[in-house]
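User: I'm writing a tutorial on reading structure tokens. Could you give me a worked example: one chain, its sequence, then its tokens, then a sentence or two explaining what the tokens reveal?
Assistant: Sure. Here is the example chain.
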Amino acid sequence: MNQRKQKELINKLANEFKFDVCRVTDPNLPNITSLRLKEFINLGFHGDMKWLEKTFERRKSPTSLWEEAKSAIVVGINYGPKVDPLTNNNKKLVGNISVYAQGRDYHEIIKGRLKLFSSKLISRFDKDKIQIKVFVDTAPLMEKPLAQKAGLGWQGKHTNLVSKEFGSWLFLGVILLNTILEYDNPEHDHCGSCRACINICPTNAFLEPYKLDATKCISYLTIENKKSIPKEFRKAIGNKIFGCDDCLAICPWNKYAQETKEIKFINEKQEYSLLDLLKLSDQSFRVKFSKTPIKRIGRDRFIRNCCIAAGNSKSKSLIPQLENLILNDQSELVRGAAVWAIQQLGSKNNLDKIKSKHLSIELNNSVIEEWIV
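And here are its predicted structure tokens:
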């Protein structure tokens, strides 16, 4: 089978398995890619994401991960939202969840389709010679630079992928092959002088265009961060309880974005009451979010985030549940966040009573310190 027919087959299979875009590229990434990653790690911008440092040598290029790789098929699925995510920032009694996490876990969906894609591809190629490896964001592979090289889009000033056709909303998957295919042309940067994504960041996580300090990013703070959220970022988080879409949603290229056609990424229940979320036990949390990306951070970190959002809600209706968490929750992470939250909402007399009752039973120093304003 010649390269032209191979390419036709790849595009046909991508369409069959409902990928919205599919391109092919040489898997060798330029040196600048690894240099930028090394700088990111050396500056400590990766925070607690220690796997980035541990896997650097394999991560810096797909051929470092698998030296026999000769081609990379990069696919994307559109997960474009129905409404502008920025409108959710104003709903103070609602937990604001990043668009990517509102539906089914994309890792499972994309990986399943890529395996079927690969199986059919192998059956049509030379079975004795072809080898294939499948990746969906959990392996040490830099999908975004690879996607840019393949022509799916470009890495914008917020470091995320931007597509002329789908705006900010593409999930990525990669198939590496030990066969040389016909390559597509890379995409060029079309950000121009725009700084919308830099300017909108609530926590000023961008030191400059294309340079992100992840430890200040709300997505990091609410997902990857396993400790209490630093006080200097709590008010800026607003009602965000899992991730942040501000820099994605503000991008002008979203005028070309389309609502996703993938029903598994559509959440009919668009809003989650903060009061209801604050009442979740470990078991009810697992049941509620069992098939979503949210499940991986666990109930305690999630309720920590909900407490911060409650503190920013200006609603005294949440005080009784926050008091219940302070006095009864088993997690020091939750109790500490609830203490901060209730201080944002309660009157002095009420707070003095709760504080006195709490300090008579609290043994954790980090939680006790939350009462020190």
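What the tokens reveal: The two ends are 71 Å apart (CA to CA). The longest helix spans residues 106-124.
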